[in-house]
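Need a sequence for this fold. Nothing fancy.
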């Protein structure tokens, strides 16, 4: 069967039109041979463009298909398509976020783990994640005011420093530098003096350091000896001894035992006082009548005569 030229031309034109439609769809990011699920959401403003990517966990799974302004609600209605292999809950959130500091926005599917699965044509809730540029644009007025105040303060400081540097008065910075120079010279002289003294007494300093070292070694040995003495046990024994002495003293104070009775009994004191008086009279009588006591062994008894007051004195 022979095909006429007209049919060939018609087939060629139809093939060209189909190829043009495919290439145009491909350039738009659409694949006419792949079926995709379409979903809807809305925002208070539009920051997207058609073919903006739709991602999940940073992976591209779809694109924005259409953007329309709803005159009734005053919101931007967005339709987007995703790969039909992706399954997520109807309670998932569609988040608008910035893709980079140089601009550009995209949609992210924040999957929820509850509720029924979303179906093509469903309307999903949305949210907006603030980006760096939007945050800076909101706070730019405050940042600019603070930057302006900082620059003004810096300019004032530099002006004052400039005036201080070119001050020719005695109270200016030149006099301060001269005084600082004099101080540095004095410090330099002092350092030379100290260095000279150290060099002249190097032997003495070494001897002092050696003595200090020996003293520290002796102290270490002494500490070891004291450690071996077991001071804690000695203190414990001393404490027990003091406790016994305290018990004895308490017994003496209470009049317990022979010593306690001797210390607390008034009769003993009175008897001793009487005996001392009688002994005093006896010694006085021996002094006045010695002959009587020479004959004390004789058979003749000499009666006792108490001394008079004059003899006592």
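Here you go.
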């Amino acid at each position: 069967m022979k095909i006429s030229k007209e049919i060939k031309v018609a087939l060629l034109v139809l093939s060209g039109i189909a190829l043009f439609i495919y290439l145009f769809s491909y350039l738009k990011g659409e694949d006419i041979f792949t079926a995709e699920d379409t979903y809807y959401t809305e925002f208070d403003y539009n920051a997207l463009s058609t073919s903006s990517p739709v991602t999940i966990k940073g992976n591209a799974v779809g694109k924005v298909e259409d953007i329309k302004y709803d005159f009734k609600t005053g919101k931007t209605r967005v339709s987007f398509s995703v790969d039909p292999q992706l399954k997520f809950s109807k309670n998932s959130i569609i988040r608008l976020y910035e893709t980079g500091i140089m601009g550009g926005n995209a949609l992210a599917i924040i999957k929820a783990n509850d509720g029924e699965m979303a179906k093509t044509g469903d309307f999903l809730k949305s949210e907006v994640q603030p980006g760096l540029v939007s945050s800076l644009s909101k706070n730019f007025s405050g940042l600019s005011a603070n930057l302006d105040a900082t620059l003004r303060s810096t300019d004032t400081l530099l002006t004052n420093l400039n005036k201080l540097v070119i001050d020719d008065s005695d109270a200016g910075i030149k006099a301060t530098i001269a005084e600082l120079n004099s101080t540095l010279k004095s410090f330099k002289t002092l350092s030379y003096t100290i260095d000279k003294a150290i060099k002249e007494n190097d032997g003495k300093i070494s001897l002092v350091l050696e003595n200090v070292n020996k003293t520290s070694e002796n102290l270490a040995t002494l500490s070891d000896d004291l450690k071996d003495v077991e001071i804690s046990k000695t203190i414990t024994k001393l404490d027990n001894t003091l406790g016994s002495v305290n018990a004895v003293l308490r017994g003496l104070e209470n009049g317990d035992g022979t010593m306690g009775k001797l210390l607390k009994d008034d009769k003993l004191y009175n008897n001793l006082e009487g005996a001392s008086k009688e002994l005093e009279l006896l010694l006085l009588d021996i002094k006045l009548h010695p002959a009587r006591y020479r004959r004390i062994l004789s058979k003749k008894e000499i009666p006792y005569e108490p001394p008079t007051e004059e003899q006592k004195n």
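For context: The beta strands are 37-43, 53-56, 59-70, 75-82, 93-98, 105-110, 125-128.
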